[in-house]
Specification:
alpha/beta; Rossmann fold; N-(1-d-carboxylethyl)-l-norvaline Dehydrogenase, domain 2; 2 domains; binds nicotinamide-adenine-dinucleotide
């Protein structure tokens, strides 16, 4: 049986720590690091081997996996120490959600330094990270798939190979742009329904089996009642925080600019979510935007 690769795991936050725990439980030998000492301590408590610097995490491993807040964090770490510390031909597996242009740049830097690269952003949130049921959108060279797939299968239940370097981030940004647009649309429909005298349940029963049907209604319904598991039933505790939706719509805006795409709805969704987070909605589930639509404060 082929032995499992050693993995340098950097970024032990809300997503990274449970992902690292799943790899550890599956028998992978990790070198885990985060710039926040409490995140490192949490990994150590879970029995994961931790190291004192980012460079150490990249040394003497076959895979360097990063799960950082932004593309700038990724590029800085690659340039400052990771690419240099890693042995030649290390696979850089970048799982953060970052700008498509930055993902391509990170891949170019890794390849130019003699390494291999793949972008593998995720959807499924903290719940999916803990349960090992994430979806990975993968941008990678065909020949690297046998090395990447078994590792991602430990942390996720679905892996979609979207194309070459940057294609995973491209797919993620398109999906989340549509999600932002569809949530605003769902929220507007429910507020209009209220004003036309419809109950939430009646409108839900129609939309969920008619042509307006979408995830924003059937799974993450922005009004309490029809979908008991939706965040609306627990005062909009996330779920998927509006701040993260705003971040992803910012990435969509930059991809729209990069490709000179005239996408009115995507651009408007970015503006509305930015206003919502700036006016105090950042920590709420992104479906809470219905409250701002209802009170006309957007
Ligand atoms: P987080 O802020 O909780 O975790 C990021 C971690 O990276 C932090 O602990 C931070 O200290 C660490 N970090 C930053 N720079 C570092 C460096 N140079 N070396 C080592 N550690 C470093 O964020 P998160 O919620 O875990 O999200 C991580 C990524 O996943 C983001 O790009 C986010 O957009 C994406 N994502 C998040 C969710 C979610 O529901 N939270 C869902 C899908 C995708």
């Amino acid at each position: 049986m082929e032995s499992k690769p050693r993995i340098g795991f950097l970024g032990l936050g809300h997503m990274g720590l449970p992902m690292a725990k799943n790899l550890h439980s599956a028998g992978y030998d990790l070198r885990a690091f985060d710039v926040m000492p409490q995140a490192v301590a949490a990994a150590r408590e879970a029995g994961i081997r931790t190291v004192d610097t980012g460079a150490e995490a990249a040394r003497d491993v076959q895979i360097v996996l990063t799960m950082f807040p932004s593309g700038q964090h990724v590029l800085d770490a690659y340039r400052d120490y990771l690419l240099e510390a890693a042995a030649p031909d290390t696979l850089f597996l970048e799982c953060s959600t970052i700008d498509v242009a930055q993902a391509r740049e990170a891949a170019e830097l890794a390849v130019a330094a003699g390494h291999r690269s793949a972008d593998a952003p995720v959807s499924g949130g903290v719940v999916g990270a803990e349960a090992g049921t994430l979806t990975f959108m993968l941008g990678a060279d065909e020949q690297d798939l046998p090395a990447i797939t078994p590792v991602l299968e430990v942390m996720g239940k679905r892996i979609v190979h979207c194309g070459g370097h940057g294609a995973g981030q491209a797919a993620k940004v398109c999906n989340n742009m549509l999600l932002g647009i569809s949530m605003i649309g769902a929220a507007e429909a429910f507020v209009l329904g209220e004003r036309l005298g419809l109950t939430h349940q009646a409108l839900f029963d129609v939309i969920s089996s008619a042509s307006g049907q979408c995830w924003s209604v059937t799974t993450n319904c922005p009004v309490p009642g029809p979908v008991p598991s939706s965040p609306a039933n627990r005062d909009y505790t996330p779920g998927f925080a509006a701040a993260l939706m705003t971040k992803d719509l910012g990435l969509a805006s930059s991809a729209l600019q990069l490709t000179e795409t005239d996408a009115h709805m995507g651009a408007l969704a970015a503006t509305l979510y930015a206003r919502f987070t700036e006016s105090g909605g950042a920590g709420a589930d992104f479906s809470a935007i219905i409250n701002a639509i209802r009170d006309g404060s957007l």
